[in-house]
Design a protein that fits this description.
homodimer; 337 residues; Farnesyl Diphosphate Synthase
């Protein structure tokens, strides 16, 4: 958990607006699927009993609400978009945890580890379908559903690339950034524009907000990849060096492997071999840093934050929302979990 | 493969219309995902080389095309609906094969068995997103997408129930029929009405066609459940007695267990224990028949075929399409694979 004082107000404000709508949407699931979904979201235990705290940061719902406000509408207009994007995000987490074999998320067993692969697959599928249902019942829902579906398709393509990269020897930084643009950028681009779409804002406005979100997504992923190696397991809820152990081709690792520096060859050999033990993870971590994978990725985070902020300057959006979008972007890049 | 002469013309006609559009839609996937999808469809091997024959019967695309014609429009209007429904059907097959642990489909290894669980999950996800994209780009696509999304959600809920039933001792025939209505009926109901929706037919017409499809789905599932026990493995492509081995709660099995006849207790004990060997499968098959599970299910198939045909009488639809819909329903119930 991040201390509340570090969080921009919009995260709390959007959570207060989106959570009841999300809960209402989940009521449409069968009891079994609803219990899995609320467990996954950190709202309940597996018996459906309410648990304290829990839940993610809620960056996506916040973007959806601000996006409506940016388009000079009431933030509530963006709420169904926030619900839909959050459902798609959680569908992808449910499936990614199976694919990556991750047994822990937010300090608790992942759904597949707790109730089995089959129910976890079906629960993810159910959230994806529910997201579409929520949007298609709204005014201007068809345009918003198109925005969401295109983002979902791009996210899935990014996930397919991510899987393929794990067994591919040669992955360039260009490949890696394209994968991240799909896997993370597309849905954040959708989140940051879907409220404006629901508000009927002009396409130039929605387009600028989408670009802001897409670059924010790349900055977000860069920070995620840094935390995946150097993050504090206590704060991230993931084991230390998880990405190196899984031979994931994240930005710092790919940048190091492609750096042409001497240590890159040793790193390449280590990652081509079998599983790494704790000592090897420590050595590999050092090698990534020696090859400037850490600084390269930190620079990417800064560069894409900058591009995100500049996208907001392209159009005349509500200045209050503008400031909150900028603050949120800075928060995302400076977070430590 | 079923001999071509047994197939109603509409299956060939719809396949000729829908296959190129389906192929065009698949072009939007990444190469890796497209190769998995075309392998799953039986169009290619895993290297992307075209393979002879292959593919399912294509009942759903045929329904979509006839549905447009029933609504007094050109069959082509229904083609995007046929593509979308076929994509959703295949998304569900990809995921169901993982969930059920099925290693063989249409005489070939299932996708998860051939390339792994992760890629099979992602390929299913990709087909589900693609189905929505295809529809949302059509005229009247939003209404069609609502029809598809509601059916998809119902199908997923049915799949969740199906999983839950396997470990639940008490499943009534009512539970079982409700599960089949979701798992099979909803998508067939959508297939049979989506063309009319795309054609802008009145809701009464679309509703009658949806009811026809939903009952046809139950008849279809009843036949599927009969073939799952008594089908010829050579023709079905599935191992003999697969449903009994997997302790699936299909219609004949549930009807037998709920029959109150003496042999039901022995059957219940067998299915409560561990895996069945060949001899036990033979005994269990006999017990299901002795408890009239077979005749009960055959009667359900007939009854729902009848209800499907009567739904068509409720509205004034194109008589040519009416006859083809009736023929298709009869074919589905009389098929042997």
């Amino acid at each position: 958990m991040i201390p509340t004082q570090a969080m921009p107000d919009i995260l709390t404000r959007a959570r207060d607006a989106v959570t009841p709508a999300l809960a209402a949407a989940l009521e449409r699931l069968t009891p079994d699927l609803r219990r899995i979904a609320t467990y996954h979201l950190g709202w309940t235990d597996l018996d459906g009993q309410v648990t304290p705290g829990g839940g993610g940061k809620g960056v996506r719902p916040a973007l959806a609400v601000l996006s409506a406000e940016a388009g000079w509408a009431d933030g509530d207009i963006g709420v169904p978009g926030g619900v839909a994007v959050e459902l798609i995000h959680n569908f992808s987490l449910l499936h990614d945890d199976i694919i990556d074999g991750d047994r822990t998320r937010r300090h608790r067993p992942t759904v597949w580890a707790a109730v089995g692969v089959g129910p976890a697959i079906v629960a993810g599928d159910a959230l994806m379908a529910l997201a579409q249902q929520v949007l298609l019942e709204c005014p201007r829902g068809a345009a918003a559903a198109r925005c969401l579906t295109d983002a979902t398709a791009a996210m899935i393509a990014g996930q397919a690339d991510d899987i393929a990269f794990e067994s591919r020897r040669e992955v360039t930084v260009t490949d890696c950034m394209a994968m991240s643009a799909g896997k993370t950028g597309a849905l954040l681009g959708c989140a940051a524009s879907i409220g404006a779409v629901l508000a009927g804002a002009p396409e130039t406005t929605a387009g600028a907000l989408r670009d802001y979100g897409a670059h924010l997504g790349l900055a977000f992923q860069a920070v995620d990849d840094l935390l995946g190696i150097w993050g504090d397991p206590e704060r991230t809820g993931k084991p230390a060096g998880a990405d190196l152990r899984q031979h994931k081709k994240t930005m710092p690792i790919v940048a190091a492997l492609c750096s042409g520096c001497e240590e890159a060859q040793e790193l390449g050999r280590m990652l081509a071999d079998g599983p790494l033990d704790d000592e090897q993870v420590e050595r590999a971590t050092w090698l990534v840093e020696a090859c400037e994978g850490r600084s390269w990725t930190a620079n990417q985070a800064k560069a894409h934050l900058d591009k995100a902020l500049r996208a907001l300057e392209r159009v005349r959006i509500n200045p209050m929302a503008h400031r909150e979008l900028a603050d949120l972007a800075t928060f995302v890049v400076e977070r430590e979990s």
